[in-house]
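Project outcomes to date are best conveyed with an example. Our students and postdoctoral researchers have been running inverse folding experiments weekly, and each run begins with a structure described purely in tokens. The record below, which covers 376 residues, was selected by the lab manager from last quarter's runs and is presented without edits.
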């Protein structure tokens, strides 16, 4: 797909006070009281690892009659955080009123929540309110795993003239219960980065996991995938938090966790490593070519079978045959140390491609089989 290149500034050029990787955004899920907001900020500042303070002022809650944020009265508390600690401050905005209020109180960075980025009307309203304003905006992934919707939300902000835009990967809703509150679907932020290479990627292990115990592993994985930053919920008394209590960590625990992270370089530092990597990549390229040739050959055979099925009036899909293939491949894959989910995905895709070729043949009876010589 060819699409308009968005003018998005890489994180190193955002003019942030600290350019060391990862950028850490931390703070409570919600601003609750002035004391909680300020004390959390002081302790986070003391860690020396946090650049941006986060706190939800307006909270999108799934069900009504729960705490829905302190509202605008919490904004002066964030101003105070900024004055006292020097941390940049950020909050979530979900409508025009939030944008105006946040700007009035000097919020440094806005973020847009997962329920809002899923709604193009709300996104457009926010984008319109931001026209002519120069402020960084972080767009969380929409709650449903839809990359186009995420890109669309980013484009609306970009079209409003904002150039410091970041993407927050906070995971995707799932009906089945899993160990995660929201499934990570890592491939989606990777695809986003492929489509918009300059966009900073920030991982939100708090909302992915919903559980303080899983935050370290998710953060490490994000670092290994070359994410630029982390947004982690931190509260001075996590168990007493008014929202998202299970996933918040104390500032001390946050510091300990960040200190344990291994930050790897995206490119090898010296020529020898680069050369060795280059050699291995050559082998990968050869193997990929072989895979393509094998697929091409498989499709040619599938086409021959398609002609045979057409001539003999046999259905394309033969459930039993497909079950045999996938069972055998899963067994063999297991012996070769390949994950069943991966084998399943690959062979489903290959089988679907064979079906597509055969459907073409059924539709177009006059097409010649490209190869002869196979007998079935
Ligand atoms: C939050 O960051 O507290 C929040 C509400 O996040 P999300 O929009 O990812 O659910
Ligand atoms: Mn939260």
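After processing, the design step wrote out the following sequence:
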């Amino acid at each position: 797909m060819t699409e308009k290149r968005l003018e998005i500034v890489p994180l190193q050029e955002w003019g942030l006070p600290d350019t060391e990787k990862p950028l850490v955004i931390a703070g409570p899920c919600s601003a609750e009281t002035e004391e909680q907001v300020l004390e959390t900020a002081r302790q986070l500042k003391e860690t020396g690892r946090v650049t941006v303070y986060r706190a939800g002022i307006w909270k999108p809650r799934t069900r009504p009659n729960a705490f829905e944020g302190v509202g605008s009265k919490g904004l002066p508390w964030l101003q105070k955080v900024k004055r006292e600690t020097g941390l940049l401050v950020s909050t979530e905005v979900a409508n025009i009123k939030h944008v105006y209020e946040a700007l009035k109180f000097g919020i440094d960075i806005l973020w847009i929540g997962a329920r809002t980025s899923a709604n193009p009307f709300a996104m457009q309203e926010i984008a319109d309110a931001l026209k002519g304003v120069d402020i960084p905006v972080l767009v969380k992934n929409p709650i449903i795993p839809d990359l186009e919707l995420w890109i669309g939300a980013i484009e609306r902000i970009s079209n409003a003239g904002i150039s410091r835009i970041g993407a927050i990967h906070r995971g995707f809703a799932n009906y089945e219960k899993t160990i995660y509150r929201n499934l990570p679907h890592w491939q989606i932020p990777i695809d986003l980065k492929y489509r918009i290479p300059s966009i900073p990627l920030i991982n939100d292990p708090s909302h992915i996991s919903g559980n303080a115990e899983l935050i370290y592993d998710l953060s490490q994985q994000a670092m290994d995938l070359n994410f630029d930053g982390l947004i982690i919920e931190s509260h001075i008394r996590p168990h007493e938090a008014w929202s998202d209590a299970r996933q918040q960590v104390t500032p001390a625990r946050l510091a300990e966790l960040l200190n344990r992270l291994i930050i790897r370089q995206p490119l090898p530092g010296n020529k020898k490593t680069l050369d060795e990597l280059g050699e291995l990549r050559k082998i990968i390229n050869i193997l990929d070519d072989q895979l393509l040739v094998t697929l091409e050959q498989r499709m040619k055979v599938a086409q021959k079978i398609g002609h045979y099925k057409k001539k003999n009036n046999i259905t394309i899909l033969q459930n039993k045959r497909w079950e045999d293939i996938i069972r055998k491949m899963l067994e063999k894959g297991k012996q070769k140390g390949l994950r069943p989910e991966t084998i399943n995905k690959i062979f489903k895709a290959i089988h679907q491609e064979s079906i597509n070729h055969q459907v073409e043949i059924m539709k177009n009876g006059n097409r010649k089989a490209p190869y002869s010589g196979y007998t079935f």
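The chain has two domains: 11-260, 271-363. The first strand starts at residue 23 and ends at 27. The training component of this project remains on track.
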